[in-house]
Amino acid sequence: MDFKHKIKLISPKDSGKKYLLASISGLLLSLSYPGWEVDLGFLVWIGFVPLFFALFSQDNEGLLHDILHNKTKKHLRKLFSIGFVAGFIYFLIIFRWFFSIHPITDLGIENELLSLVLVYLVYIVSSFGMALLWGVFAASSVWLRNFLPNNKKYLFNFLLIPSILVLTEYIRAWWFGILWYGPGTLLGPHWTIGNLAYALSDNSLALWLSSYLGIYGVLFLIISVNILIYLVLIKEITPSFIFRIKKILTPGAKEKGINLRIFSIALSIIVLTFVPKLIEKINFNFEKSTPHHINYAIIQTQHQSEDLTAEENLKKFKKQLELLKKISQEHPETDIILMPEGSNFSKNLQKFQTPEQVFDFYSRLFKKPALVIDNSRVVDQFGRQLSRVIVTNTNKGALGHYDKRFLTPGGEFLPYHVQLLIRIFNPNSLINFISDRGFSIGENPSSSIGSDNGYNIKPIVCSDLLSPNIVKNASKNSDILTVLTSTSIFNGNPTIINQNLAIAKFRASELKKPLILSANEGFSYAISSNGKIQNITKNQDQELLTGGVALKTKNSWYNKYGDKPILLFTVLLLSTTVLVFKFKMLAD
């Protein structure tokens, strides 16, 4: 079978095959993304290959002629639509957790039909909006590819195509916030959910690379491997090194074309998937020998609604007190006690006791000083609702707080166009939502809070975890990432929980900082500074998770420079390509 010959059959007259190939790519890549019961991350190494067959077929090689004669619009629209189809299928599948939000009565919307319509519209618009950037990637890849002479095509394939995807994914991280812009929007490259680097959350090679170049460096590697496999399949690159090894092992062997190419691809995927497992074991053993440790106690809760009755709230508070007492008696070595988002412990404690009584309560309960970190919904002096993290030293009282800044559209504020839609069909629901769930952005970023035991922390709340930039800034002058989350709005949906776990692994490995996470309606866990799960709860029930994590004494390369090196590299490459094109135009 000759793949280069086969690709010639995919002509402009047979667009259906191109869209089929794009659909296959979308499906393969969605299967590689976390959220399934089994790890299919290895599919990310080949997921783009069908899309490349559709984009780089022979009929697209004439695009430069069209550019020179101003006939590009139709051609580019077709290329855009091919990439869009791949992206739309991909995001439709990985965003399937959207339907777990229905019914959204907790958001003040009682009408179930309106709830279903809104959830469906948000699901479709989100998938559609994110897929637009894949269309841009597809069209610009073929467009720029034609700017280079044939003898420079390899340079383009291995450097510029990955650069285009990195930049479009970076723009997409901004785009989700723009798409759902509202009174609680914090603009920035924060919405990285869907980034295919997360498909390799169990791959130690990818996690190690992220400590230098972040998720965009990992994405660059992924697309480069896909390009290599594509070129091998169309015989632009012959895996002669594999043939030479085979000839040494079996003298007289003859190269058999496609069989050898398939063998070399399969071997490469096996190496990329399983060799990092050995690295993982080596790193984990090193991690355990690190002398600096922090002991934690994570309180996991399970309550679907934040709008509890007085009786339910009292029952929840008594259970929290019971668990605190258990920690003080059975785990007196504890340094950090972490509660989930929406725990409201400090708020409730202050309802029943004066500040002096609160101080006395903690000092009697804990002989060794520990930090208690919890989250409450508070109303400030201006009447704004804030999601506030309060850090309390058991021997000194409250040390400080952080008001959440990166809010979730639909969960903590309503985008303007959604507000308009609700005003038309059910204005009372809008009023209910704003009064019950309409949060405001905190004014100041998280600040470092020190402990009596010589370590510093900065709280991270739920959606903050999606943003490498927010977490990187929070990690400065802190020794451990402490994350408070709640997936009650998703009713404990396992897909979004597993996707968030993959993201958490990358945040820890990027910054070489251990991470502990407390969940409501989810799983709580501790992750080492190498992205390895060290401890995790057995289920989503109310539970206490205890243990210790090792600290790293040095910051990672990514901790110092962030995404700047990889983004600067990609911008320079693309700028060089444009200059080459201009010279080519002048020459012609």
From TrEMBL:
Localization per record? Cell membrane
Q: Where are the transmembrane segments?
A: 20-36, 42-58, 79-99, 119-144, 156-181, 213-237, 258-279
Keyword NADP attributed: no
Q: Which GO terms describe its biological process?
A: lipoprotein biosynthetic process
User: Which enzyme class?
Assistant: transferase
Which key words are in the record? Acyltransferase, Cell membrane, Membrane, Transferase, Transmembrane, Transmembrane helix
Coiled-coil stretches: none
Q: Matching Pfam families, A to Z? A: LNT_N
Q: CN hydrolase domain location, by residue? A: 294-551
Q: What is its EC number?
A: 2.3.1.269
**InterPro entries listed in its UniProt record:** Apolipo_AcylTrfase, C-N_Hydrolase, C-N_Hydrolase_sf, LNT_N
Recorded GO CC terms: plasma membrane
Mode of membrane association: Multi-pass membrane protein
Q: What is the protein's known function? A: Catalyzes the phospholipid dependent N-acylation of the N-terminal cysteine of apolipoprotein, the last step in lipoprotein maturation.
Name by which UniProt lists this protein: Apolipoprotein N-acyltransferase
User: Which source organism does the UniProt entry give?
Assistant: Candidatus Yanofskybacteria bacterium CG10_big_fil_rev_8_21_14_0_10_36_16
Q: What is the lineage of its organism?
A: Bacteria, Candidatus Yanofskyibacteriota
